[in-house]
Amino acid sequence: MSISIQGLTRRYGAFSALEGVSLDIAKGEFVALLGPSGSGKSTLLRILAGLDDPDQGSVQRDDEDLLALEAQHRRVGLVFQHYALFAHMTVSENVAFGLRVRPRRQRPSRREIATRVQELLRRVQLEDMARRYPAQLSGGQRQRVALARALAVEPSLLLLDEPFGALDAQVRVTLRGWLRELQRSLGLTTLLVTHDQEEALELADRVVVMNQGRIEQIGTPAEIYREPATPFVYGFIGRANRFDGRIESSRLWLGTHAVPGELPATWAPGAVSVWLRPEHVTLAPRSGTGWAGQVVRLVQAGSAVRASLQLQGCEGIEVEAEWSADDVERRALVSGSAVAVQLRELTLFHAGGLRHVFHPRQDDGGANGGAVDIGPWLHRRG
Ligand SMILES: Nc1ncnc2c1ncn2[C@@H]1O[C@H](COP(=O)(O)OP(=O)(O)OP(=O)(O)O)[C@@H](O)[C@H]1O
């Protein structure tokens, strides 16, 4: 079933926990809500589950007004970070709970419940643990029981609030793959709240980035990472460098350097915030090209190396780059080494929400193999 959320607002006094949130979720879609603490993610989930009411807005499930239904009639499966399993019930009793408490006329027979529970435990790969109590399970196993319990009532919407938040990193990664497969095979419309960007980008068909009760951007994981719509999204997702830049005399200035390239003709002179991913700061392939700088620090991060740099003319700012460990070794780079880098793609945000992806002009006839070399066109000011 598809879900259409329109203009949801939830206020506490003068404070808006949610402000005019609209979102359509297609049948079978997996959507992740991502945002900093306090951005309104759980508030949205709680309203959908019927645990809270909005001040304004509507939620349609297909043609049905979801908000008009009592929580127990919404057919919504809910899993929280802290597994609220019943400690005195076995795994199968926990999973059967939602079916056992149904009114007599809607309750399946004992046999049907037993079959359904068995099937669900098979799905979450816990058939062998049916008779155990929650205290006899690992954290990851408990979360799988919680999920089986949520699925028992055949929800038309699955709501997951940091379901793996309390688990260690390795278990999280394993459960992630498992959840994705389960969600796909059942075709469940799912909304996941998470702090963990990797989790959101890996699991979801679309990601909703929230900030201060509002939606900043909705997009596929690739869109959110590659085409952030706002400075907030750029800085929140992945690693990012930020400069205070200026547009002056139809040029982009970073510190005391002008960077050549096409600016939108309509952009007025003034301040721009300039954003740059570490992977877009590459080592210049030939000596005599690139933007001169100095390595401040190198940190090994798996097969990559994170380098902090200072660039000539931008001394007040440390720029973070990401290079392969092989490149760093081949060039014998250490803290203090002189380097030359190329910036490949800068995203500019101008007043009034204008955005422009800026590719510094390349002017070496392609000798750099397509790399952007801004060194020769950096103009000293004054
Ligand atoms: N009952 C309440 N009374 C007052 N303010 C509240 C209440 N419930 C939530 N809030 C506020 O609403 C805002 C949104 O809270 P919410 O729990 O939705 O955030 P969140 O994005 O889920 O955060 P987290 O990731 O930390 O769980 C927060 O600033 C929170 O303090």
From TrEMBL:
The source's superkingdom equals Bacteria
Q: Which residues form the ABC transporter domain?
A: 3-237
SMART domains, alphabetized: AAA
Q: Name one GO molecular function term.
A: ATP binding
> Which keywords, in A-to-Z order, does the entry hold?
ATP-binding, Nucleotide-binding, Sulfate transport, Translocase, Transport
Instruction: State if Protein biosynthesis is listed as a keyword.
Output: no
Coiled coil ranges (UniProt) are none
- The UniProt record lists the keyword Translocase: yes
Q: Where is this region: Disordered?
A: 360-382
Q: What is this protein called?
A: Sulfate/molybdate ABC transporter ATP-binding protein
Q: What is the species of this protein? A: Dyella koreensis
Taxonomic lineage is: Bacteria, Pseudomonadati, Pseudomonadota, Gammaproteobacteria, Lysobacterales
